Amino acid sequence: MRFRPCIDLHEGRVKQIIGSTLAENSRNLKTNFVASQPPTYFASMYQKDGLSGGHVIMLGQGNESAAREALAAYPGGLQLGGGVTSDNALDWLACGADKVIVTSYIFSEQEFCLERLRGLSRQISPERLVLDLSCRRHQGRYVVVCNRWQTLTTLNLNAEQFDLLGKYCSEFLIHAVDVEGKQSGIDPDLLHCLAENCTRPVTYAGGVSSMEDVAMIAEAGQGRIDFTVGSALDIFGGTRLRYAELCRYNM
After folding, report:
1. What's the DSSP call for residue 40?
2. Which of 56, 91, 104, 130 has its CA 20 to 30 A from that of 71?
3. Beta strands 171-175 and 129-132: pairing type?
4. Of 177, 182, 170, 184, which is closest to residue 212 (Cα–Cα)?
């Protein structure tokens, strides 16, 4: 189990936002933290501390320059997600991204489009591709959401889907959208779903706010599920988890 660091970009700045409020032109956007430092500060810190496999996520338009600066500060050490398509995936890899993270592109409206995923995996190879299957509970199932986590898709998380999708990517990134950014604790049912159904590497995000939560991830995932932390982390204005302590999981 590893700690995967993050750099969430909104309007060109590093921020921590409650994911469920992130709609385009939303007046209800709730922001937990806005960094005074540029994204390169965090990228350079992750490199210095030997943290690999972290992700830079562009939350909407206007973040491209900031993302390129972060990737340049830590070439080959960070993944890039947010608006990735077949038209720009290769460009982001050329900018220094270790892998690209794809979400909405593999959906047409709400429908999962296998042909788009197949085409993308042929273009950049599965080893450089991460699928973001961030989800929320709906009618007793975990359903993938896209379009800034606002749109429910037709894709449910289960063993059959993980086996299918795993043929076209190297790993999964999964946010528990219902608890993301709320510092209210993790979603244990989602963790058990991942542990039971997913054999590929997977990173869990959402609600991690204490060392007890980290211990629960380790137990539920039997050491196979990585994790990332946002608003609760001290480098993002949080008071519940110390960045230095989490770095030990990568040693």
Report:
1. H
2. 104
3. parallel
4. 184
Average pLDDT along the chain, 251 residues, taken 10 residues at a time: 96 83 63 92 98 94 97 98 96 98 91 95 95 94 89 94 97 92 85 95 94 94 93 93 93 61
Tell me 182's DSSP state: S
Angle at 57 between CA 83 and CA 136, to 5 degrees: 85
Are β-strands 111-112 and 78-81 bridged in parallel, bridged antiparallel, or unpaired? Answer: unpaired
Work out the number of other CB atoms within 10 angstroms of the CB of residue 97: 26
Q: What are the residues facing 36 on neighbouring strands?
A: none
CB-based contacts of 36: which residues, under 8 Å, 6+ apart?
A: none
- What letter represents residue 115's amino acid? E
| CA distances, 149 to each of 21, 52, 126 (Å) | 9, 25, 24
- 3-state DSSP call for residue 1? coil
170, exposed or middle or buried, with CB in 10 Å at 0-12, 13-18, 19+? middle
What is the residue type of 63?
Answer: N
The token pair that represents 174 in the structure block:
């999964």
Q: Retrieve residue 123's tokens.
A: 């273009």
Residue 114 backbone phi and psi in degrees, to 5: -65, -35
User: What is d(CA 23, CA 25) in angstroms, rounded to the nearest whole number?
Assistant: 6
**8 Å CB contact between 54 and 78:** yes
Q: How many residues does the chain have?
A: 251
- Per-residue pLDDT at 143: 96
The rounded distance, in Å, linking the Cα atoms of 124 and 117 is 11
Query: Is 0.90 surpassed by the pTM of this model?
Result: yes
Are 151 and 145 in contact, with CB atoms under 8 Å apart?
yes
Of 133, 128, 92, which Cα lies nearest the Cα of 112?
133
